[in-house]
Design goal:
- The protein is of the alpha+beta class.
- The strands form 4 sheets. The protein has a 4-stranded antiparallel β-sheet, with helices on one face. It has a 3-stranded mixed β-sheet with strand order 4-10-9. A two-stranded antiparallel ribbon has the order 1-2.
- The radius of gyration is 31 Å and the shape is elongated.
- Helix 3 runs antiparallel to helix 4 and helix 8 runs antiparallel to helix 9.
- It has 4 domains: about 35 residues, no CATH class; about 100 residues, no CATH class; about 70 residues, Barwin-like endoglucanases; about 70 residues, Dna Ligase, domain 1, CATH 3.30.1490.180.
- The chain contains 10 helices and 11 strands.
- About 30% of the residues lie in helices and about 15% in strands.
- This is DNA-directed RNA polymerase.
- GO terms for molecular function: DNA binding; DNA-directed RNA polymerase activity.
- Keywords: DNA-directed RNA polymerase, Nucleotidyltransferase, Transcription, Transferase.
């Protein structure tokens, strides 16, 4: 590695540009590490087990291995140990550094825990279905979404989606209070989060949260709905529940093309499934099992 780095250092900046690199931000020799980056403890927290023992993170275990072997290598080199011993320790250090970055390198046995479980090191944290990208960035959980089974309803327009009342109570739309809609907003807040249905049994929308002008967020409940209604003033935001005519995004996985996610107007319906017109099945590639 030293010889490789020395050769890369001799490449002039003018030639580095032809390699597609900007010498101000990245030179070729930087790809050969001379120091090992150690992540902060927030990245590798230790946990306390029920028995009271402390259990360290897999990355910490690997860093301890690297430090220990590095110390032994330095001691043997300084004491003038045989070349064979020094080379063995050098190879062991290489092994620990390699498995610290990627514990699934082909041709190298994986580093294991005392229990026999392979250690989960840097590459394993990032790649794959349960890695940082696919699990926590591309596929993170979000607010203002709901998921359930779909059913056909030929009486709905192709622009509509039938939403169960139970789901409509959990999905909210921010309503900014102004002098013009203050009384309507106050009436909604007075209903609370679970208003009774109308005389003909139809769904009535309520309010889940009230956000005041100072940013204070108040959860509206049956017992405090009247008090919340009194606090209402222009500038507040009322998080009202879904009503007929609201526009929502409807998506079916796998999202293969842009018609896998389309906007529909809401129709609140009884029962517990999303309903939509049969003509909407082909773009979503949906069926009713």
């Amino acid at each position: 590695p030293k010889e490789v780095r020395a050769r890369l250092e001799r490449i002039p900046d003018a030639d580095v540009l032809h390699l597609g690199l900007n010498p101000k931000f990245g030179r070729p020799e930087w790809m050969v590490l001379t120091v090992l980056p150690v992540p902060p403890v927030q990245v590798r927290p230790s946990i306390t087990l029920e028995s009271g023992e402390r259990s360290e993170d897999d990355l910490t275990h690997k860093l301890v291995d690297v430090l220990r072997i590095n110390q032994r290598l330095r001691e043997n080199r300084d004491m003038g140990a045989p070349q064979l011993v020094v080379e063995d320790l050098w190879e062991l250090l290489q092994y620990h550094v390699t498995t610290y970055f990627d514990n699934q390198t082909s041709g190298i046995p994986p580093a294991r825990h005392r229990s026999g479980r392979p250690l989960k090191t840097l590459a394993q944290r990032l790649k794959g279905k349960d890695g940082r990208f696919r699990s926590n960035l591309s596929g993170k959980r979000v607010n203002f979404s709901a998921r359930t089974v779909i059913s056909p309803d030929p009486l709905l327009s192709i622009n509509e989606v039938g939403v169960p009342a139970e789901i409509a109570r959990g999905l909210t739309v921010p309503l900014e209070v102004t002098a013009h809609n203050q009384e309507i907003a106050r009436e909604l807040v007075k209903r609370g989060p679970t208003p009774p249905p109308t005389e003909d049994g139809r769904y009535r929308c309520g309010v889940n949260y009230l956000i005041r002008e100072d940013g204070q967020r108040i959860k509206v409940m049956e017992k405090n709905s009247e008090a919340c209604a009194e606090l209402l003033s222009p500038g507040c935001v009322v998080e009202r529940q879904l009503v007929d005519g609201d526009i929502v995004l409807f998506n079916r996985q796998p999202s293969l093309h842009r018609m896998s996610m389309m906007a529909h107007t809401v129709r609140i319906l009884p029962h517990k499934t999303f309903r939509f017109n049969l003509c909407d099945c082909p773009p979503y590639n949906a069926d009713f099992d």
